[in-house]
Amino acid sequence: MEAKCRVCGGDAGKRHVAREMMYGSREQFGYFECAVCGTLQIATIPADLARHYPAGYYSLEGALPKRPSLKRRLAAAWAYSRDGGLLGWACHALKPNPEMRLLGELGIAKDDPILDVGCGKGARVARLRQFGFSRAEGIDPHLDADVSMDGIAIARRARLEDVSGSYRLVMFHHSFEHLPDPHAALAAARTLLAADGRMLIRVPTCSSQAWETYGTDWVQLDPPRHLFLFSRDGFRRLAEAQGLKIERIDDDSDAFQFWGSEQYRRGIAMNDPRAHSKKTPLFDATQIAAWDAQAKKLNAAGCGDQFAAILGRTSRTPE
Description:
The longest helix is centred in the last third of the chain and has 16 residues, at about 285-300. The radius of gyration is 20 Å and the shape is globular. The protein is an alpha/beta fold. Helix 1 packs across helix 2 (about 85-95) and helix 1 packs parallel to helix 3 (about 100-105). Helix content is about 30%, strand content about 20%. It has helices at about 70-80, 85-95, 100-105, 125-130, 180-190, 210-215, 230-240, 255-265, 285-300; strands spanning about 10-20, 30-35, 40, 115, 135-140, 145-150, 150-155, 165-175, 195-205, 230, 245-250, 305-315. It has an eight-stranded mixed beta sheet with strand order 6-7-5-4-8-9-12-11, sandwiched between helices.
């Protein structure tokens, strides 16, 4: 049977073969571009996806963040509500906190319920709680066990369909592209939104200069874990089909789209000892700075390789 786009139902267009490069297995996976909406997606979702999230997968390892320094707390307070006077402003100028700024702009109160879907070990949830968001919590199906901080469970092993309740904010920070059924995921998330709730979804996008330049060496393709690399049109169609509207969209890509892709182009896996890092830089500081500057220009032009979308309910009944 001819493959169909799981986002808009369009026919499969151009096909690609991509290799797994985070762990360097180089196992090959087929992807195709939708001929209608342009979304890039895996042709066949592996039945054994769990084996591609081994022990030590980056979002599932490491300790929770330590209590933030006074400077970081002042920067966060300034970003969120302009508290802290001149000192707060100065700290924020040195260490900007765009996430706290966004929460303030959305009117998310510190006692509002917040759900982080695909939270990994719960680092973001922990940080939110450290900044005073007392009802932030997370879920992740790949957790071995619930994660607690100060005697309170902040992240639990669960899937979206296991959750009930009402949330002012439901977040997907680079977890949405890992889900096998984006329509079902959005429908489930929509039922959890309070009447004035918002959804925040951050995803990589194939509507980007990085995909055009690097093709299957694009670091954010990440086969087979990234099942969908949404086009901007495909993401809009998906949201509208589920009774949601995009209220705001901001590109937030960085230099990783360049150095990661250049590394893959050279055949160097992310876990290879030769891989770029602060201790063993594959690219010098001048080159990284140039890529940072280029990323900012692409973001401003709406051509970055990832974006953050804010969605709200519409009166339309989901399809």
